[in-house]
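The passage that follows is intended for readers who have already worked through the single-chain material. We present the inputs for a multi-component assembly, then the predicted structure in tokenized form, and finally a short commentary. You are encouraged to pause after the input and sketch how you expect the pieces to fit together before reading on.
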Amino acid sequence: MAVKYSRQRQVIHNFLMTRKDHPTADVVYQNVRQEDPHISLGTVYRNLTLLADRGEILRLHVGDGVDHFDADTSPHSHFICSCCGCVTDFSIDCLEDMLSQAKQIFDGKIESLDTCFRGVCADCINAAAKQSEPG
Amino acid sequence: MAVKYSRQRQVIHNFLMTRKDHPTADVVYQNVRQEDPHISLGTVYRNLTLLADRGEILRLHVGDGVDHFDADTSPHSHFICSCCGCVTDFSIDCLEDMLSQAKQIFDGKIESLDTCFRGVCADCINAAAKQSEPG
DNA sequence: TTCCTTGCAAATCGTTTGCATAATG
DNA sequence: CATTATGCAAACGATTTGCAAGGAA
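Having made your guess, compare it with the prediction:
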């Protein structure tokens, strides 16, 4: 099926490119609504799905029950904080090595690699430290 | 909260340990039911969640909209076939290196790493090849 | 007896979908 | 004009939850 231009899709994609925090569909909706008050949540979902299927954005499954979206399609890892739930980019140089190594070993066809670190982010560690300081 | 023994939980965990294909909650339910016909789907979900929270099994988010479960908690990667949806184990030796490298770079606390390769499995490639053979 | 667990069913909630209408090429 | 996209609301489906009853320590 051919893809036709749509203002809504453009607004959604533009918004996503301004964000580095990998927002969910609903966060995209809430923000895009301010620029396009009549846009519907269904349209946001439809376009995020379309963009992801075409490889123009990434759909991330971080395990919090909600999909996150990333306008940066270059190879990189993610870090998910189990405390605040934030999703941040994480650069690690051996990603490409790992992928090419895997392609040699595996007897099927490997197309991509998702790497997702989990733990507690610096902000949450600092916040916890402040909490336990004497008042 | 303290954890008390339950036959249902034991059956669920035992079943999961016999499988290497990372079944979903519903698949666990369908199978466990044959041994324990009165078990409910809610109980299966509750126990899978409890076991995962206690680190006795892994909950995998492979991106097909359904959680998968893995009784093998040792460090290993997974491969997901975009064709048949199967989830298979994948050994890659630089996993530990990657994790320790990340721990040094990152300014938060890294606890674990999920790595998930995507592509087409050998079975699906072979099946496709047979399809295109002359009859 | 106390607290955890179960079965059942209803509720939750992220996401998808059907349909009539609007916009694109 | 043919096709794709939208808004709206209803449908869907995986997972969670409330509650009364059962089982473990």
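Commentary: Chain A is about 45% helix and 20% strand. The first helix of chain A runs from residue 7 to 18. How closely did your sketch match?
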